Amino acid sequence: MSAREALGDLFNLATSATTAAVRANLENAAGITIVLIGATSGNATITEANAASGGTSQNLAVITKYYTQASGVWTKVTQAAAATVTAATGGLLAVYISAVSLSDGFKYVAASHASGSFVYIVHGLEVKRVPENLKAVTA
Fold it and tell me: For residues 106 and 27, what is the distance between their CA atoms, to the nearest angstrom?
């Protein structure tokens, strides 16, 4: 029996640099973990959209908890529902967005920050494939 790779079975990945706000498609996924790296502090904004580009984009004010990491230790941050999360200088930040949190007609999520970049981890894939046959996260 051969082992399945996590990429394609458990998750798919994409990146988005600072203010580019690349959109990730959650149509066939349970959710997305957005990881912010390289930030020099300040807020990251999470939005939802109804198209891969253009269309309608709006703040996704559903985030009530996220995690920051400094020196290898994770800290849970709780807040009233908002579309922003606050980065710590030089650390990591991770926030999970469930696909069911999106408004009706919206299936894309994006993140932006003035100085940090993002890794999108789309998980709970409905269609599992070998990595080279995965659909692009942004399609």
Answer: 9
**Interatomic CA distance for residues 24 and 112, integer angstroms:** 12
Residue 1 scores a pLDDT above 60: no
Residue type, 21: A
The confidence score (pLDDT) of residue 2 equals 58
Q: Name every residue whose Cβ is closer than 8 Å to that of residue 38 and which is 6 or more positions away in sequence.
A: 90, 115, 116, 117
Instruction: Say if CB 47 and CB 59 are below 8 A apart.
Output: yes
Prediction pTM value: 0.94
Domain ranges of the chain: 6-133
Beta strands in 18-138 (DSSP E): 24-25, 31-37, 42-49, 57-59, 63-70, 73-82, 84-87, 92-98, 108-112, 117-123
Would you state the structure tokens that stand for residue 119, as one six-digit string? Answer: 């890794």
Q: How would residue 41 be classed by pLDDT, with cut points 50, 70 and 90?
A: confident
Owner of token pair 């939005």: 47
